[in-house]
Automatic annotation (TrEMBL):
This is Hemerythrin family protein. Belongs to the hemerythrin family. It holds the Pfam family Hemerythrin. It comes from Candidatus Dechloromonas phosphorivorans. Gene3D superfamilies: Hemerythrin-like (1.20.120.50).
Amino acid sequence: MALQWRNALGVGNEMIDNDHKKLFALINEVEVALSGDNPVAEALVAIDGLATYTQEHFFREESIMINLRYVKFDHHKNAHRQLIAQLDAAAAPVRQLRAAQARGEATMIPPEAKAALIALLRHWLLDHILKEDMRLKSLHLQNMKGPGSHDLCR
């Protein structure tokens, strides 16, 4: 079943929310590619697109956190780095199959590798938004109210 964006997942910043919606769509594309006729090639295109967009999103999100003087910035940035490393590790079996295909070997992505990649993508996106990015929601809302001290900037 495809991931569905819900407004309850919004953090109150249009740019971040739009990025998250795009990440949902890209993860759905990875899932579709993994079940396609040429899953290795299709999946790698989708995974590479997801990885690139994720890096761009993290840069934008981190820039916003810096501007808001988010007190847990270092923790959040570290979580981003861990997510990128996890994505790279989960995609490694698919990347290895690309080399085998280039040698003319018949290759199929093992079902357990597909399942692990899909589970990771779904978990890290939803978990990261619900646990980490939701902390930005109250900070963003407080910042919109005007200057003053608030818990997330101390």
